[in-house]
Amino acid sequence: MLALVTGASSGIGRDMARVLASKGIDLILVARRKDRLEELKKELSVSVNIICLDLTKKENVYKLFDKVKDKKIDIMINNAGFGLFGEFLETDLDRELEMIDLNVISYHILTKLFLRKMESDGEGYILNVCSSAGFLAGPRLSTYYATKNYILKLTMAIYEELRRRKSRVVICALCPGPVNTEFTKVAKGHFAVKGASSEYVAQYAIQKMFQKKLIIVPTLRMKLALFFSRFAPWKLLLRITYRIQERKTRE
Questions:
Q1: What's domain 2-248's superfamily in CATH?
Q2: Can you say whether residue 156 is alpha, beta or left, with left for phi > 0 and alpha for psi between -120 and 50 degrees?
């Protein structure tokens, strides 16, 4: 088998690459930082092809697909992404648009192109790394939450279309809560509660992907939080989420 992982230079993407390699699955690793990818490649015992591209640029997203379209990709993992803490009035617009380009546009394009390819090939797995944020609105992390809502709902809709077609292509959404990665450093904030390890989240995600689970929530705490959030009024959820995000933001 052959898997392609975006955002593979750190965090969940890097650990997913390790999990897949442990199962004997060859890899195509995509990220901007070549040195990080080279270090990861050295520790893996499978065939690894490195592609260095900045997927905030739409032309690079198409370039990535063109580079691999002649290969049979069995697993495609959309993982590249970042967030940005702060009030919507104050956050940098250009940085937010970059986030939308990466978290939404690149996911949308790659999901569309690889889905068509896998449908033509007769099988495959697409795992979109979303977030528990995809179920909520996120004051002080508003654009990030909005991007994850987009990808989660897109993934869910595609799942039903594929189910009705009796397709052999599987699509899943990984929706973790806080995870110990570089996310908070890039987003300029910190988690108010202890995050799950990216190693555990990666292992759990790959296991559930192969079990064809649509929505993958790795921790019991987050499963319970999402369950009880169904019964709370939206305005109360907004107040709670605001307070949580406020505690994350560094002064």
A1: NAD(P)-binding Rossmann-like Domain (3.40.50.720)
A2: alpha
User: Burial of 165 by CB count in 10 Å (0-12 exposed, 13-18 middle, 19+ buried)?
Assistant: exposed
User: Position 187: which residue type?
Assistant: A
Domain ranges of the chain: 2-248
- Residues known to be catalytic: 144
Q: Give the amino acid at 226.
A: L
Instruction: For residue 76, give every residue at least 6 positions away whose Cβ sits within 8 Å of its Cβ, in sequence order, or none.
Output: 3, 4, 110, 111, 114, 118, 124, 125, 126, 127
Neighbouring C-beta atoms of residue 139, cutoff 10 Å: 18
pLDDT (tens digit per residue) in 28-79? 999 999 999 999 999 999 999 999 999 999 999 999 999 999 999 999 999 9
pTM as predicted: 0.87
| Helix, strand counts (H, E) of the chain | 10, 9
